[in-house]
Amino acid sequence: MRAEPKPSRAGVLHAVIEEILARKDGQIPSNIEGLDIFFDGTEDLTNALLLRWHTRLVASLERGLVDDPEDREEAVIEAWRHATWIYEGVRKVIDELAENPPTKDVAHAVRTTARNDRAVMAIAAGLASGSDEAAVRVGHRLELEARRRNLVQDTTGGMPQPQTLLGKFKAMLTA
How many helices and strands, by DSSP H and E, does the chain display? Predict the structure, then answer.
């Protein structure tokens, strides 16, 4: 007979994220077993969620740029969209926290993560070389375009369409 695995911070975070992804309501669940044991309040849990989102975004960026696409800007926009598709519920939680932060620390953490995400996007697109304000503005523009495309997709009810030439070719081959 196998013993039950010991609860861990990573396991509890995984359970929180699974619940967020299932609900997609923009709210952090509070009824996950071990939440109060492994996380020291809303700020601690928010920081863990923000780190997971950032990691997901960077992984999507790396995946989108691995074949050295001709249009890096397009690849970055699609990578952000891919990350939001996989982590839709988490992205909704972050957007809700940005709109209605429960504390000043949470507001600061969300702003800092957004700034870092945007700078990374601009650098990945080849439009910046550092994490300065210009890079953040460029990354913000890329994020806004990705969000616009997601809204268009949501209103048309279609599936995400590959935007790069390689992506379109792959879609044709798999169709």
Answer: 8, 0
